[in-house]
Every structure is written in C-alpha cells, then in structure tokens.
C-alpha cells in the first residue's frame, strides 16, 4: 500500500512542500494530495498590488502540478482528526493520511479592537484584497484613507495606494514607529518616499476603535473614509480544535524538522507553525521563513521514509524586502537572527531586486518539476515499518 501524504494549503509553504515531496519520493511508493480552497496559487505578497487595480498572473494549481504526481483537491478544510488521521472537507468527504503537512496559513487579526470587523478592510487574502479594490474604486478625490499598522504589510499597502491614487489623502498609523526596526539608512529612505508620496504618518498611535468614518487613538480621531487594517495576523482555528499541541495563538508547535512535538505523523509549515529560530525566538510569520520551513519539512519527511539522514539545521534570516510602490523599494540585509545591518539597497534597484525575489518565489511554485532536488528515492519500508520509522 502506498504511503499517503496529504498537504493542507497551497500558499507558498504548502505549495513548495508538495512540490519538494514530489521531487524527493518515487510516485510508485507514495500518493501526495494537495488540498486548497482556491483553484489558483495566490501570491500573497502581491495583495497590495491586486487591491490597487493591478492584474496578477493566474497559476491554476491543476496546471502547476500536472505531470508531477501531486493530486490537487479544490475544497475547504473544515477539521482535522489527528487521532484517526483524517481530514474533513466542506463538501462532506474525508481524506485519510499517513503523513500530514499542515500549511493553512493565517488571516487578518483584529486584535480585539472594536469596529475592525465591521468597518475595516484587510489584505489577508485574495478575496479581501478584491473587496478593498472595489472600495478604493468608489472613493472620490480627497477621500481620507488610513492604513493601520507600521509593519511590512502596512508600509507596502500605504505606498502602493498613494502611488496608484495620488488624489486620495493617505495616512499610516502605527503603535510604534513606521519601519522603526530598519537600519538608519533604510529608515531615512523610507521617510523620503513617504514624504514624496504625500503620506501622513501617525507614529505611536494606539488604535482603540474603528468607526465607519474614523480610526480612534485615545482622544484623537483620524478621519477615514476607508480603513485598511494590517496590524497583525492570526492562524485559522482548525489546529487548536485538534489534539495537536499548539501555542496560545493556535500555531502548531514543531521541532527543528517541522514535525509536531505531539504527533510525529504531522508536520506544520509557514504561518501555521511555531518553530524556534535563532536564539530560541520563534520564527516570524513571513514568506522568508515559510519557504525554508517547507524545504525542511519536505526533506525531513523524505529522509525518514527513505531511511536517510534527517536535516535539522536551524533556520534563520537573510534579508527583508519592502515594496514602496512600483518604482521604489528597500532591500534590508539582516543578520541570521534578523537584526538589520548597514547593507541596504534602495530606490529603483531595491524595487528591481524585490521584484526579482517575488517573481522567483512564484516561479519556483509554478515549476515544481524543474526545481532541485531532482532524484526521486524509493520508500525503503513497508507501511507498518514506515509508521514506526516516522515515529522514531
């Protein structure tokens, strides 16, 4: 009987993991099933572009994995039974697995702030970005737009909107300082671009309420015909409803090989996983960590099934990339433990390198059969022995 591998979610982490496994394992020995609610691979790092009216290239998953041996199921996951090793789908069917790769990612989090759910838009996924796109198209010249959140998503959203719609009054509100984690050189460039685009910055603004016409920070009301909420993400609640060990935020706790600490037949990657990074600090939710986590999980599963050494080197950081509209950007070199260095690329060069990185990530997902490694190895155990090997 073939070893059944099921991958839940086809964002960057899930899609890369599925392709990695297809390249590592001989299709006579395993079945690989990829389950995703959307029929296309969605470049989440480009949601600010989609929201401002740009058209993104479609990558249908059935076409991406044609000829790879990966079976694509388009449906929404409703539950995981980690004891019976089954996944329940919205259409009523269940899928059994021997090894599960959980990569359901994250969605926007309102942080408990009243009014966010009712009045704010987000960039947490394709449908959210399309709703924001429709709302932006309705706004007349001079309308105030407030982006809440001074992290990567907030900066990219504010600059993209300001560049695409210079007729709007765009501002960004952050609890701390906008881009305050960047190096001095990068911060100076960011400020220059923000000033050039006419974006108003509200630093140290702790938003306590969102209404239909404003965001409220203490005694201050900032007018907002449109509020874009980027202040945090939360994982889907499915894992927390299982017997898997999860963190207080619902992320599956994994070891250095991305394997669940409580269920050795379950691996988690991307935003859905809580994995230690350098210095024991959990890896942050990001494409920059999701892809290496997917590589690690795919390689670890293949190694355990084929009786080879299991990689467990620590995952760290290399760069942070920020789009500042279509013609500007920042590429911040960071240390292995995610601290900014003095090496920074800015302006058009920064934008070109950021685009190259984003395009490269999407290309690697869209061409799983062309990526290394290329040798498919045979599973060296029977199913019963494989279960014992995976648990070892």
UniProtKB/TrEMBL annotation:
* Residue ranges occupied by any FAD/NAD(P)-binding domain in the UniProt entry: 4-289
This protein's UniProt keywords: FAD, Flavoprotein, Oxidoreductase
Q: Name one Pfam family in it.
A: Pyr_redox_2
- Record has Ligase as a keyword: no
Q: Provide the cofactor list for this protein.
A: FAD
Which InterPro entries does the record match to this protein?
FAD/NAD-bd_sf, FAD/NAD-binding_dom, NADH-Q_oxidoreductase
| PANTHER family registered for this protein in UniProt | 64 KDA MITOCHONDRIAL NADH DEHYDROGENASE (EUROFUNG), APOPTOSIS-INDUCING FACTOR 1
Assigned protein family: Belongs to the NADH dehydrogenase family.
Name of this chain's protein: Oxidoreductase
The organism encoding this protein is: Nocardia rhizosphaerihabitans
């Amino acid at each position: 009987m073939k070893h059944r591998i099921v991958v839940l979610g086809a964002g960057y982490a899930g899609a890369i993991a599925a392709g990695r496994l297809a390249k590592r394992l001989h299709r006579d020995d395993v079945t690989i099933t990829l389950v995703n609610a959307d029929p296309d691979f969605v470049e989440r790092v480009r949601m600010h572009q989609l929201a401002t009216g740009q058209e993104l290239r479609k990558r249908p998953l059935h076409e991406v994995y044609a000829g790879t041996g990966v079976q694509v199921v388009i449906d929404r996951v409703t539950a995981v039974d980690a004891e019976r090793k089954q996944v329940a789908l919205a259409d009523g069917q269940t899928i059994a697995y021997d090894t599960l790769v959980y990569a359901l990612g994250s969605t926007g989090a309102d942080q408990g702030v009243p009014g966010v759910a009712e009045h704010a838009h987000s960039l947490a996924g394709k449908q959210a970005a399309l709703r924001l796109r429709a709302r932006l198209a309705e706004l007349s010249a001079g309308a105030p737009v407030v982006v809440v959140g001074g992290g990567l998503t907030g900066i990219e959203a504010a600059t993209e909107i300001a560049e695409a719609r210079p007729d709007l009054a765009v501002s960004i509100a952050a609890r701390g300082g906008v881009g305050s984690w960047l190096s001095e050189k990068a911060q100076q460039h960011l400020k220059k671009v923000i000033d050039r685009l006419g974006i108003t910055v509200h630093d140290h603004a702790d938003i306590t309420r969102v209404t239909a016409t404003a965001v409220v920070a203490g005694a201050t009301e900032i007018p907002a015909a449109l509020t874009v909420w980027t202040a945090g993400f939360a994982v889907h609640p499915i894992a927390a409803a299982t017997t898997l060990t999860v963190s207080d935020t619902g992320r599956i706790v994994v070891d250095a090989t991305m394997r669940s600490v409580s269920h050795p037949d379950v691996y988690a990657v991307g935003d859905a996983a809580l994995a230690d990074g350098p210095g024991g600090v959990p890896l942050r939710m990001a494409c920059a960590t999701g892809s290496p986590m997917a590589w690690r999980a795919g390689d670890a599963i293949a190694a355990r099934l084929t009786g080879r050494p299991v990689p467990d080197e620590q995952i760290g950081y290399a760069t942070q990339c920020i789009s500042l509209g279509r013609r500007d950007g920042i590429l911040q070199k960071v240390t292995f433990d995610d601290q900014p260095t003095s090496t920074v690329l800015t302006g058009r060069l920064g934008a070109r390198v950021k685009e190259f990185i984003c395009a490269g990530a999407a290309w690697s997902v869209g061409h799983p059969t062309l990526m290394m490694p290329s040798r498919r190895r045979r599973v060296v155990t029977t199913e019963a022995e494989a279960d014992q090997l995976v648990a070892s």
